[in-house]
Amino acid sequence: MSRTVKHYLFTLFSLGLSAFFFVASRSMPTSATLFPELMAGLIAVLSIAMAVNAYKESKLTEEIDSKEENKKVDVVRVTVFLGLIALYVWLIPQVGYFIMTPLFMVIAYLYLRALGFFKAVFISVIFSAFIYGLFVKFLNLPIPMGWLEQLLS
Question: Could you tell me what percent of the chain has a pLDDT over 90?
């Protein structure tokens, strides 16, 4: 399947999801419908923009599509990564969000060969600090603390 067709299919999926959110927001109280409707509209606009961009790119890069057709999916690599995600989700309640998330992010970045070690650590620490500030301090929402709860109490 060509890259352009994949973009078109994802556009249709996104538009369907957007329509679902829009219709589902109609069952909410009037004061609560603004944000979901705005998000549904934003998703729809961005989906259409993605389709337009894919169409423009397809005119420029038709030979790239034929090269991508020959790429094979590394099933073992995908399975290992899905296992890492499952392990991360399973360990969050026991170990805690603020230990598991930076650890998972660093491992994921390194496993996917997306970043070097120091950049991965830096990004995961900054992200975790942002989440802590937003959810724990600003919104006062509980986050699974795991081992940190015993240390902080």
Answer: 13
- The contacts of residue 143 (CB under 8 Å, 6+ apart) are 97, 98, 131, 132, 135, 136
Q: What is the CA radius of gyration of the chain?
A: 21
State the pTM of this model.
0.54
Q: State the burial class of residue 124 (Cβ atoms within 10 Å of its Cβ: 0-12, 13-18, 19+).
A: buried
Condensed to tens digits (0 to 9), the pLDDT of residues 68-110 reads 556 677 788 888 989 998 998 888 888 888 888 999 999 999 8
Retrieve residue 101's tokens.
């998330």
Q: Are 69 and 40 in contact (CB under 8 A)?
A: no
Task: Report the 3 state secondary structure along the chain.
Answer: CCHHHHHHHHHHHHHHHHHHHHHHHCCCCHHHCHHHHHHHHHHHHHHHHHHHHHHHHHHHCHHHHHHHHCCCCCHHHHHHHHHHHHHHHHHHHHHCHHHHHHHHHHHHHHHCCCCCHHHHHHHHHHHHHHHHHHHHHHCCCCCCCCHHHHHHC
CA angle 58, 63, 68 (to 5 degrees): 90
32 contacts: CB under 8 Å, gap ≥ 6: 25
